[in-house]
## 1
Amino acid sequence: QDIYVKGGDIYNVHTNVNFTAVVADGKANADFAVAVLSIDMTDRYENIAEGVKQAEILYLLADPTDAQVQKYRAVLDTTVAAEMAAREQMAEDYLAYFAILADKNIDAVYVATNNASHAEIAIKAMEAGKHVIVEKPIATTPADAKRMVDLAAEKKLCLSVDHMMVYNAYNVMAKKYVRAGKLGDVNDCCFHMEFAFGYDPAEAATWRCSKIEEMGGPIGDVASHCFYVSEFIFGSRIVEVSCVYLPKTMNIVAEDGAYIKFTMANGMKGSVKVAFSEPRGGLVGTLSNLGYEIYGTEGVLRSYGSMFQLSGKEDEPYKIRLEMETAAGVRKLHPRSFPNIYQSLIEHHAESVLAGKAINAREGLRNLQLCEAAHKSAQQGGKAVAVK
């Protein structure tokens, strides 16, 4: 029953395609196998584009010297060679990709490609009869996400989105405390993920800062985490959001940050604060900020570091904390075990496949709709936008 991805079995093809098998107790599990697709030529082609740009700049110099002409030819030759190599590698990658889809011994595919390709690859995988896990975001538009959800339902396939923070032991404990009424009547909460990213030109050029259409920016990248974790803890859907962007001080295409107020179907109200513009000191200040506060009539629950890619294990760079404050003082809460959040996601998906109980990533579709509504609200001066 202990199904996990064994890192040593990962086969890497130029960092673009990863294959792995799910194994049980260190031995191959004949009942279930998963392939991890990670095809992304973006960086490679950005380097090629830069080479062409340099060559063109040299070529356009007025009255170039012989040395400049030779330099132009050298840059261009190197660029052309790099482009040809990249094209050949891409052909190999896609042959491997189609081989995975055709392999009847593979039951499931984990799509970890660039965001814009999630929907296309996931749909092709499901059309080939594969169960699918998709990295967040499930897609880049609600329309594509709906196609994925509908196809999974039609073909009775398991479709999951990598909302891994719901498997964090501290977030699971917070959910239990809230549901058990240990805070009294909860009437407010704040989820926040604020840090510095994009001040460096290389960071500013990444999709996170430059491609809102691929769910870049603080809303698409991290408010999305805050939305699904809040729905997980409170057991209710967000039905309305109001949002304003933070002042524009960064040289990035995306918004610098956002302040979002939300209302849930059960009447619960809360807020989300996200930003790429906040240095927050160093590593400790940054990671401790990735958390939340939940306010009740009998106490406050505070999380430090549970809104990140950590699981709570001893060897991690920051020790996650969950604290309960009441009139009697502050008490630290400690989960009994700390399962790896990514491993837990894959296990849950695998168990659903083996049990024949298909799960569907409708929460991934809702997450896109919430991000879209937040942007719409901000563009309308913070006007409340309903989400069905």
## 2
Amino acid sequence: MLKTLSILTLAPLALLASVGSVAAQDGLFEDITVGVAVGAGTMGAVIEPQVRFNEYFGIRAPIGFGQYDFEFSDSELTYDSSLTLGGAGVLADFFPLQGGLRLSGGVIATNEEIDVTARADDIVLDGITYGTVEIDGKVSPDQPIQPVVALGYSSNTSIISLDVDVGLRFSGSWTATLDNASTGVGVDQVSDETLRNEERAIEDEFNRYQVTPFIKIGGRLRF
């Protein structure tokens, strides 16, 4: 996971550096400016190197990280869940009014994953009565490379400015993998058939959200 995160983080930075260098050397963009935005949003805490080539076009590399804890329930069980946020991406910007308003599109290589745990006493699952059950597992997106479209704002005239994005991320479907969490005394083992049914129930719940918000708010420093 650390190696993957390192690749996701360094790749967009390398792309920004190479594009900016080539553009500057070839004289394609005489008004090129660079900056960095720091903020928070649906990717967690975000740091975002930015290059604006001219009045109309720019490119950014958002890098996010964080964690969010929540609960959700299917028909019988309540799961304590921990969502790992973040990843890295590349967004191309178009400034139609030559100011701060921007239209953006690109991709996010997400490292999101949800750890889930459920414990229950005296419960009936698939017609079988259990004294105590403990189930844990993971829920992961089937599509780790996710398209993004957004409307945003970032001034290119001020050294420090507001930096905002509001848009959509096309997350796709999710896959759940569950197992018995404990083989200890007093803990019943849930059947494989019931575990597969629980996986399908969780997937049905998360697959309701195949298009999710893409939101970021923070500040930008122009160099």
## 3
Amino acid sequence: MYAVTKAALLQWAETVWSEKSGNWLTLVFSIATNTGFFEEAGKEIPKSFPQQNASAVAKSILSGVAKGKTKIFPSTLFYVMLRLNKILPIILPLYQSIEYHKYKNWLSLLTLPKTLSSMKNLSFIMLLIWALSACEPKATYPDTLPMKVALAYGFDKFDDVNSIAYTWNVRRDSVTVITRDWKWNIKDRTVYYATPDTSYTYSLDLPADSLPVADKGFVNDKYWLMFPFQLGWDTGYTYETTENVPTPIAGTNSTLLTIVYKSGEPDMPVTGYTPGDAYDLYLDENNMIMEWVFRRGNGTEGRPSTWEDVQQFGPIKLTTTHSNEAGEKFIWFSNISVN
């Protein structure tokens, strides 16, 4: 029952976090904490490894809340073990086997049948607790192609990102390049905006009619940098899939994923500043975008461009360069920082 309720709590939290305003909830993944519980259980009872004292756990919680984290791991060792187990899944069974034999050897020293029976029950309960604390259930995602694209770029790891800063560059002609600097503070929902002429910070929680004009630029530039993640965040769109379609520029065989944002129908909310727009995504076998065509208002014509220079930034991947049909780089991102 203990393990079931904790697993249910985590799944509920994952649902809350999937909402745009779900960052108010924080979960703490603590390990065995050295409190009076062990003293009450008896001095001879074997203690699980690793352990932390209550003071260290409390400090970690306060620090994590101050930083706006939604998941707090007081033990660095436990967090590393958790990550390693995803690569080497033998770690968790090995750990559980060691702890089980530790308890089994202790139980063999007990001679009173009643006491032995009670401690076996306690051992079983403790093993359930260890299993829950040692393995965090994986979040579940819709089995759709848009979500597979998002996951290919690290959507499932985005919760580890606190802020993203970058410079958006667009070439207007052979000599003119326009730049905008952005820093998106994800946890506190603020955006820093700067150009050669001005700079300021604004909150994304402002009413829609109070957001500054720069927010349109923020949404536009973020789509060029992070559109795969938008496929996981946005809900107001429909999609269609077509196999074996050549890309419009390179002619490479691809899977065509067409995304059409709704324009305010009663059953679907408006998304973004230009509802009704369409995006044709040409995907490779790993669900990465090779090229796309943006079609304003879901028109029949659009300009194709590439998605090039994919780089790893912390836990996520970002595309840093877009070129046109002539092979000319016309939009690119620099000074990228993911924390």
## 4
Amino acid sequence: MKAMRATVLLCLLLCPLQAVTAAPIDATPANWAEVVRGLAKSPSADTEVRFQSGIYPVSAALEFTPAGGQVVLRAADRATPVLLGASSDSPLIRIEGAASVRIEGLHFRHAGVAVILRNDAGVQVENNWFDDVDGALLGVGLTGARVAHNRIDQTAGTPIFLQGGAGAVVSDNLIFDYLREKAGGAAVALDTERAPTVSGNLIRDQFGPGAAIWARRTFGARVTGNVVLNVYSYDWRAEGGGSATVTGNHFPSGAPAGNSLVTFQEQVPAVLSAAGLDRAHRGLVRAAPDPTIPGACSRVVASAGDRSALVTWHPPRFDGGKPVNAYLISASTGQSLTISDAHFRSEGYARLDQIPNGKPCTFTITAFSPLGHGKASAPSVAVVPKLIRPTVPGAPRLLGVQRDGGMACLRFAAPLADGGATITSYVLTVLPAKNRVVFTGRQILRLRAGDICFGVIDELGQGEQYGFTLTAANSAGESRAASLSP
């Protein structure tokens, strides 16, 4: 690993990025249409575009095929440009075959995958803000890419996806509120990459099933110094062979060995302060476009009970620029309920009562912010409440515990039988003091029979021995306890 790091450094010293020889293009919102026409006429030339402050509507992707040339897209000094897409399905930038690419100081909003790069070298994507996009960056066949100090939030799918390249560095990015509409992705995904480094990133608040950092058929990966919080399934996952050194990270599961547990981001102030836009570029956030109402919620799912239903959903892909503070849950049979965003983030669901038994019922969700409410979601699949007499679930299985100072991560498996009602929580009792900790949220609701999950607790005495019991709870009560001795 030391030899690889020295080789990369030597390459950077001996092979600096070439300067763009063409005269820079100074873009403003007023001349933007003219600039786009000019770029369309010469997509293969060296290009440098300096964006002044303002909003730039992008109706179709800006495409560059410089065939070994250089492309620079950057904000002018202290400018705060916003590239605003016209469609949630289209990219904003597409570059292929460049000898060097630099994208810096731009705000990308309302697009599919915002930036698509193919077979480019010397890539630098730094200090940009991506929000309300499907993903921030798709890089295919890149050599020596550096993706650093970006802020990426409110993405429908995978924020950063690198495939088939070599020597990539993904570092010091702030990534949160991702996988809002899709499942099976990751915050940082590596596919058949060679010798990538993923370090110093702060990754939190994942909504769909997936991972924080994922690698497939990737060799020589170095994953270190990352902080991961509130993930749905995995903090780190490797598939399809490959090799990786994964140490010095702060993971909610603590695994694999050589990494530490974390329960909240303030425990790692160095990463918290360094991740995301650097000081010179934080004006991007202060100069965001005027906020608007939130978008529509998605992935609404309901399960029926006796004159009741549990409903869960994904928040809007985009909150409009003001945080969502409440949700209205409406049943097709006329019942409704409003809950706070804090309640939803804690519990992961809402329970509606007084729904007639025997009648199919669908549910829609509407998000509210200080500016008003967005559109109602598409309705859920219909469910039929009916008279049931659930029993308590079967007992879960406690699989093991990992201690790290005053914290502990407990791995457990969901019961094979739910007793005829949705399991809404797991109750952990810490012995001998009999302190109780309740695990709830979307992750708990989506567990199927035998699925493995983990929960992290803190404020344990360092060096002291503890035992644990765990029960599963549904509307009928708590199951028999599984136990784990000190």
